[in-house]
Amino acid sequence: ALRAHDQVFGYLQIRIEHAKPGRTKREQLEVVSAEIGPIVHNALLHARWSDAVAFRTALSRVASLQGSTLDLPRVLESVCRESARLLGSEGSVILLAKEPGEGLQLASRCLLGAAVPDSEIAQPAWVDSEEGRALFERLRESGRPLALVKPDSPAVAPTFPLGTSGCVWGALALFPMLNDGELMAVMLIMRQERVPFSTAARGQGKWLA
Fold it and tell me: In terms of pTM, does the model score above 0.70?
């Protein structure tokens, strides 16, 4: 067990190919875990502190832009860029509501070093589909982010909309933006690799949205 301040925060797993280690070897491993526990714990604290500083800085940049311009496209572009960067993703899209009852449309998009044609983050056909409208309605009702990852096996059908034609993304997170219970916009954050969005990442995306 890895400990810091007399609290267990993780475990060290060591693969031993030979016979079960004797008492002396186990004691040596316990000494090793006792030595590296505080080191790993401090590294984790530093990483969390760095993430928090970066997040607050990004929020400050977006807030500063919102206060200095009424240019909506510039503000949305900034939100797209900062959101994709902070959440370790390659693409982001913001969909804004059209007239009441007419669905959503592409308002801004951003690619960060992704080997994906720009056309891949143009407004996808699924947005105006029946399944897409049903998905947005669920987002409106829940008011919570939704994170999706493509399954390991190609034999397992991906969760909509990851399984739609032409979708090149391995993971997707959707963040609803509500006003008095109405869905005003949805921010989509995309990753090429099958890397799930953590609870912390979903929380940060919710703040940005």
Answer: no
Q: Determine which helix (DSSP H) or strand (DSSP E) holds 191, and give its type and residue range.
A: strand 182-191
Give the containing element (helix H, strand E) for 169: none
CA distances from 9 to 2, 27, 44, 51, 203 (A): 6, 20, 10, 19, 22
- CB contact at 8 A, 84 and 175: no
Q: Which amino acid is at 196?
A: P
For the segment 94-125, what is each residue's pLDDT rounded down to a tens digit? 898 887 667 888 888 888 865 565 555 556 77
141: confidence class by pLDDT, cuts 50, 70, 90: very high
Q: Is 196 helix (H, G, I), strand (E, B) or coil?
A: coil
The DSSP letter of residue 118 is: G
Task: Tell me the residue type at 199.
Answer: T
63-67 long-range CB contacts below 8 Å, 24 or more apart? Answer: none
Question: Cα(23)–Cα(195) distance, rounded to whole angstroms?
Answer: 40
The rounded distance, in Å, linking the Cα atoms of 104 and 167 is: 19
Strands 171-179 and 91-97: unpaired
The SS3 of residue 119 is helix
Helix, coil or strand: residue 148: strand
99 close to 187: Cβ distance less than 8 angstroms:
no
**Model pLDDT for residues 77-89, shown as the tens digit of each residue:** 888 888 888 888 8
Q: CA quadruple 101, 207, 189, 107: dihedral positive or negative?
A: positive
